[in-house]
Amino acid sequence: GAVVSQHPSWVICKSGTSVKIECRSLDFQATTMFWYRQFPKQSLMLMATSNEGSKATYEQGVEKDKFLINHASLTLSTLTVTSAHPEDSSFYICSASTSGGAGTDTQYFGPGTRLTVL
Amino acid sequence: AQSVTQPDIHITVSEGASLELRCNYSYGATPYLFWYVQSPGQGLQLLLKYFSGDTLVQGIKGFEAEFKRSQSSFNLRKPSVHWSDAAEYFCAVAPSNDYKLSFGAGTTVTVRA
User: Fold this and answer.
1) Interface contacts A/B by beta carbons within 8 Å
2) Minimal Cα–Cα distance from B37 to chain A, Å?
3) Fewer Cβ neighbours under 10 Å: the N or C end of chain A?
4) What is the pLDDT along chain B (113 residues), one digit of tens a residue?
């Protein structure tokens, strides 16, 4: 149980185009989903938190107009990288939680999406 | 703000030998502490977590971790590693009243035959 999938697993795009990444909770309803970014040999950095039906909450320094997050249902959240540039190339990971209000909630992680912007 | 330090970037261990991964945190109070493992092509998997109580925590896959308040540490151990334990390991902390995880930089474990 508690499986989270991401699609696509990898994507290559041209500079200036937009890319959408999907995150799905397959066997549970995710009230809260999180989006992380991971650079090579570095830690995961939280980008934003989304609750179903609400606007996402972005971490300091993350451009909300560039990284559009939509959490339209309890099983799906999407991250759209708009007007992507080479510096946006990274590994994007989502996680999902059945609730989101306390540190005791377990986050279930997706396998990640490798984005390469040429 | 809390921070997490994993001093070892890369550890190589022989199959069957013991393994210890270090994790130190900086936080004003006792945070919630986690260890995750990341294998290629797979999502981060929770190995174990500590919230309160017994400072020695048992996890999955034969792993355990010990919380030491005096040292602000939460080191992960396994008595005998298997080749399948080769992966990236992340220590993470969350404030007791918040869900936001802060991750360490990770330790890559290589297992040699």
Assistant:
1) 61
2) 11
3) N
4) 778 999 999 999 999 999 999 999 998 777 889 999 998 877 889 999 998 889 999 999 999 999 999 999 999 999 999 999 999 999 999 887 667 888 999 999 999 99
